[in-house]
Structures
1.
Amino acid sequence: MKVLMFGWEFPPQSTGGLGTACYGLTKALSHLGVSITLVLPTAENINADFLKVVGANVRVKAIKSSLRPYVSAQHYSKSYRKSTLYGRSLFEEVKRYAEAAGEIAAEEDFDIIHCHDWLTFEAGLAAKKVSGKPLIVHVHATEFDRTGGLGVNQHVYDSERKGMEKADYVISVSRYTKNKIVSHYGISPDKVHVVHNAVEKTPMRQLEEFALKKHNKIVLFLGRITLQKGPDYFLYAARKVLDVEPSAKFVISGSGDMEEFIIHKAAEMGMSQSVLFTGFLTGKDVERAYQLADVYVMPSVSEPFGITALEAMHSKTPVIVSKNSGVSEVATHCLKVDFWDTDQLANKIIGVLRYNPLRQTMTENAETELLRISWINSAKKCVELYNKATSTA
Amino acid sequence: MVSICLYFQVHQPFRVRNYTVFEIGKNSHYFDEHKNSSVLRRVADKCYLPANAILMELLDKHPEFRASFSMSGTALEQFERYAPEVLESFKALVDTGRVEVLDETYHHSLAYIYSKEEFKEQVRMHMEKVRKLFRADPRIFRNTELIYNNEMAHYIEKMGYKGVLAEGADHILGWRSPNFLYRPKTTTQLKLLLKNYRLSDDIAFRFSEKSWSEYPLTADKFGSWVSALNGNGACVNLFMDYETFGEHQWRETGIFDFLRHMPSFLLQHPDNSFKTPSELVSEHEPVAELDIHTLISWADLERDLSAWLGNNMQQAAIKTVYDMENEVKETQDPELIEDWRRLQTSDHYYYMCTKWFADGDVHKYFNPYDSPYDAFISFMNILNDLKIRIKEKA
């Protein structure tokens, strides 16, 4: 089976779960004997021997774009004003990527097209048009997740919908996301297949001693600081925790459009001594953050999956996740909470901080549970779908 | 001759609320009245009332019919409070003289393992409750979840009981049959009745299991299995939760029809009869001594205590509870002591069970919490409030 895959980010050039998911999935697919040609907007510094990487900038004259998977159209135009290097708008970049995709598809030999999220849907459709091969679109997040349902960008919505309508099959990363695809985009549920994400089980680092840990319990938020991830709910819960456990420290790792707001808000709520910001972390520093934490909190307003929760579990850190998340469909050995219920969130945080047996039981069971949640299982489901799509095509 | 001995367990816990850390020291109202009353009403309508009605029919129809119950004090109290007609219907059954009431710990607790003193008090409380409500004087004891070992048998004998119930699983009995009475190694008079787990679980767990090769289980088929044991045993002890009828096995499965017709089929065979545990104990002698050193129970596949004490949370929670015993009792505050006792009910620890993968669906179905972790947090928060109340009394 030969797959032409369209992605937009890949480790180490990765800013979130999408790159992580693409890496884990393609690696597992290649283990199963699937050969993959991965097209990325730019292929610099990619170091993965298990697949063929095609940078659109190599094959097609430099599509150097400021394409970022998580940038909202609004934010993009703002960053564009600061820089004249790139194209006029995010949507124009998407179009250029799609044009390149058509040319690449004409040269490559493949059986099926698999593309990841709306930025690549146009590219997938172009490749389908050129080759006539079946198309699978993989939905890692929808515009409704990114915006929390407020201010949905019509152009993005239209691109997502068009891609899903024209694709032969849709993969969603959770039942939660499938429901959104069915209810907000009117896609037939029969066409949408759920393939949950997993976690790469890299060997654990040596446990490090952190000075901060000696006298304080650490509560971690790690993710983009943006509405979708609920950093504001994290702060409201932090306030409630501090009223009972004044020595607790709250670490916020990541960057995003709400960063300034959150920094100011923490100060305004009288927590500047208790809420610490690390900025955006990569690689080993992410692992260190999990190890530093006594509990990892993912209070997302809307989380299609949430691989970070599995990463934290892998680091033997207890996890509290939003019930509005895909990961809560596969992980049972964690605490689950309604993101808006900051009383309960604070109660559970304190529970984990106070009660050692709770932490022990959660992390021990999570370790066993993670054996079941593997990328190979996810890849097997993709292969099943590849076979189905190519046999009916 | 094979005597069929029916024992049904009736139990409802006082479930605790989702009690947050912010309530510690401010709110000593731990139990979820709304949930407890609504569960009790539901089970009353789905199980206790219809099943009791059928038993009454059977008693009217067959003078030979017998049954026995063990009813926890926490269940009896909730009947008095939320469903007095259920209590009346149990009284009517007992008043026939052919339905025996057994003793257990009032709070359906694991006290035997942690505090003999507390265990004894709870057994005494239960005895008094049964005396008061049913004018009965139980001679047979069953411990919570059929938890049992040699030492307990010895203890129970000293408390004056004539018989005790336990699980009869293969790995406990080895080559021995559960269809005889035994003498616990550490006793001289006490007789041990063992659950025939195959036939009991055919009803309690497999009755509506469509993948089971014997599905559907009919009353005459079951009757023939029991009759086939003639010549191979003295008794067939069918021990199960009473909630099997209508709650674990829904009415739609035909479980009530099964209950209604099973005795007739059994009594068609001239060598079959029904006996209460006390009748078995007075009519039969033990065939052998039985040496059960480690604690066993009737739970899950393991028949051990792992459903209540299998993980760190469960062990920490129960240890915290029993470590408080002296301080709690020194307050002499009846309300505080009763709250503490209600927290000993085994269900609270069962809700914290995390071994979900083999037999977890059973655990999940009855868990009022989102997860065992949530159960633990509420429980520990409550214990922290209890500690504050103790300090305030001191």
2.
Amino acid sequence: MRPFEYVSPTNKEQVATLLGEYGSILAGGTDLLALMKDDVVAPQRLVNIKHIDQLRGVTYQPGNGLRVGALTTIAEFAEDANVRRVYPVLADAAHEVASPQIRNLATIGGNMCQRPRCWYFRNGIGLMAKTPDGKSMVLEGDNRYAAILGNAGPAYFVSPSTLAPVLIALGAKIRLYSAKAAGSGVRELPLEEFFVIPKSEHELEHDLKPGEMVIEIVVPPPSQNLKAASYEVRQRAAFDWPLAQASAALEMDGSTVKSARVVLGHVAPIPWISPEAAQALVGKSISPETAMVAANAAVAQAKPLSHNKYKITLAKAAVKRAILGAAGQSTGGAA
Amino acid sequence: MKDDPTRKPETTSGVSRRDFMKISGVGVALPLVLGPKMVEAAGEEVAVHGPGKVPVALTVNGKKLSAQLEPRVTLLDALRDNFDLTGAKRVCDRGVCGACTVLMDGKTVYACAVLAIDAQGKNITTIEGLAKGDALTPVMQAFVAHDAQQCGFCTPGFIVATTHFLEQHPNPNAEDIRRGLSGNYCRCGTYNGIRAVALAKPEGRAS
């Protein structure tokens, strides 16, 4: 790891100034320190935000929903009484993140900001690794874990967060702050808009302006008729990023679906909202057959690369099982 | 072995690597009397530490320990290189394998994923802090009884993780164990023995 300066401010107004041009925010550090050890990133200063108490705490109000401070650890989030009671799907998904040791350090804000697992990126070749003659290394090389949707290029990595698809399915918003921004400095946007597909090596996969930080995730209160579930297909049962993930949130009207939100993870450079899958469910009652129609719709536009056609099958299974799981039906696979 | 005249000394100067690191730590302590550089942010002075060595004070196994460390030194490297606490092992150094598992304020963490400077003010417990003297804890004894190690390199991390897991889950089932101990790898594949340890529910942290 290269040497760096270290600062620990106690209020969020100080962060943007301290970050300057070459600083990075340190929260849980589980991703950042590994990236620094591999020399993928080399910030000249780390701004440790863990002493900023304004960024802590989970609160729930029936009228306003759930507010999750960016510094909430994944373990705290998974064990939070309100999260477990009101959004069991979120608690379950958080309980599946990485390992106990990681969940005790890693934060919700950091989970949103974690960098892709793409092995070209992790080896320091770049998010859009190119061969000397300008071809995409991902297209030319081993792309078994790369994107099957949103992969027009030059980005082929997949979005790593497993909490983001669930949060997006539930309509979550993300709140960002920079003391250098206009007005209150707070910017609130639907969580899906926080994730962007970069067009060049110099762009990030997050809509974070210089000096900006994640301060809070807000999840609206669930309606009484909401049914939600998430399903991850993994190589290993625990401590692994999924090969494909799907989160489904169904607004029911009796036994039929009034409206739906289906979000796929690990299939595209961003959490991938599928309006096609959602539309296929509207007005239907949930059965293995209707869930399969939605699953097929979710991947209808998928374009496999040379080594990842299997991910289409896995993504379909994830969508089908998330929908069946949301409806409380047997998913036909290991839970 | 100690008196074997053919045995090569660790270094030609007779100073071990660890001693050298301690000596070099003292060597740069003097200029730091001046204190850290301060910068102004949002109307307040904030101390800037590093990139050179700065004083770092840790509480490990109930003892106050201090050293001069660069901010980039991880808790794991500080424990091993500065405080002679080599029970936590440095294997992947990327927060994956679990061999460096320690307790921080009572929760399991990977010591390689925490900066030493960031662990100040926390209560750190290493494998050395679980046992009193040479007596094994009940969990350690169970690792022996159930043959839950082969090469032994993952064992300290597994024992810290298992000890904490059993405190949180006094009556675990097989699925609890699989999930609760998923943050530690054993490349010899002694998982069945470790599962047997957890199912045997050895009680108590103290020896």
